[in-house]
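Lecture 7, part 2: worked example. A protein chain together with 4FV.
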Amino acid sequence: MRIDVVTIFPELFEAFLRTSLLGSAREAGVLAVEAHDLRRFTHDRHRSVDDVPYGGGPGMVMKPEPLVEAIEALAGPKGPDRGARVILLSPQGTPFHQARAVELAGESHLVLVAGRYEGVDQRAVELAVDEELAIGDYVLCGGEIPAMVAIEAVARLVPGVVGNPASVETESFGDARLEGPQYTRPAVFRGLEVPAVLRSGNHAAIARWRAEQAFEWTRRRRPDLLGRRREEGS
Ligand code: 4FV
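Predicted complex, written out as structure tokens:
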């Protein structure tokens, strides 16, 4: 899989892209991920990427020309035979869920657009963006961290990125359930014992206990998920 990011702060991705799973997956050639400086697609002396909003109001808006030029250079023109899926991270986007991460992990090439300022000129969205995704109902200063969230959520589902694929299969939201509590050594810590069933070696009992815990935690912490099994992402 290839992931390109359009941003005015490519340096924000350096450590993120060379660390841990992403770093080793890129080295192994399983993933190609690159951040591109939007200013490379400007042609004026000040390398301008933003301007004042039409209609007045606070802040600045990202100019359409550099954005469309950058996106088309990386993904080609918008249309059915475009080689990549172009995603703008924005609070106005569709809420990003695990099921969407699973779908996107099936794509061969993603181009993520990280906005800044008050947002981007709507014409750039209409002319060059395929989809808008929001990572949560809060406002950040930039789309870079949302892009990193999307990269990590999708990349770890790409075969060969996570060492043990089993750990990806059985996890929270895989089937709209939270995972229950996890434990490791020591068996007793500050007087608190690891549940005996987990130390029993009885794998059927362990699986039953984990399923009960997952349901119980989901019912108590995220009852909204209980009704979401299977239809999410439809
Ligand atoms: C955001 C979100 C987000 C809004 C203005 C960037 C900022 C600035 N993106 N999910 N929540 N973006 O807050 O995706 O341009």
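The CA atoms of residues 15 and 23 lie 9 Å apart. The longest helix spans residues 203-221. Keep this in mind for problem set question 3.
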